[in-house]
Design goal:
The chain has 140 residues and is an all-alpha fold. 82% of the residues lie in helices and 0% in strands. Helix 2 (17-39) packs antiparallel against helix 5.
Length: 140
């Protein structure tokens, strides 16, 4: 718990508006990706087909879309950002692995790697000063 408090203090002392814009853009991107998946279920089924041989394909479909949509909203507003990103990590790692298990799509691989890198940054950095977390903490 002390480590999280120390990270939050450091992040709040070194916050920049551009980082908040990157966090908001990440949240909007994940939300739009979730909407894209929910409106195009056959595309999502085709994407996870290499993993579906292991089992749990229907679970993955019902986990990926809500996690992207709800997590994207939470990340954009800065509400429980670290928890929302932790929910995104298995999806993003799976998106990278699917490219190596099935047909290689370099643009989706690069997009998944970039999104994972930004998520890992905000997992450490937190939500920053211009977020719902900071607002609720300051005005309790």
């Amino acid at each position: 718990m002390n480590n999280v408090k120390e990270l939050n203090k450091w992040a709040n002392a070194h916050t920049y508006f551009t980082l908040d814009l990157v966090r908001i853009a990440l949240g909007v991107f994940l939300f739009v990706k979730g909407v894209h998946f929910i409106t195009n279920i056959p595309y999502l089924v085709d994407l996870i087909s290499p993993i579906d041989k292991i089992g749990g394909g229907m679970f993955l479909i019902h986990y990926i879309t809500p996690a992207h949509m709800i997590g994207g909203i939470m990340i954009a507003f800065g509400l429980l950002t670290r928890w929302a990103i932790i929910a995104q990590l298995p999806i993003l790692i799976g998106a990278i692995l699917v490219n190596f298990m099935g047909e290689m799509h370099t643009e989706s691989l690069l997009l998944a790697i970039a999104t994972l890198a930004v998520c890992l940054f905000f997992l450490v950095y937190g939500s920053g000063k211009n977020s719902a977390d900071y607002y609720f903490k300051m005005y309790q």
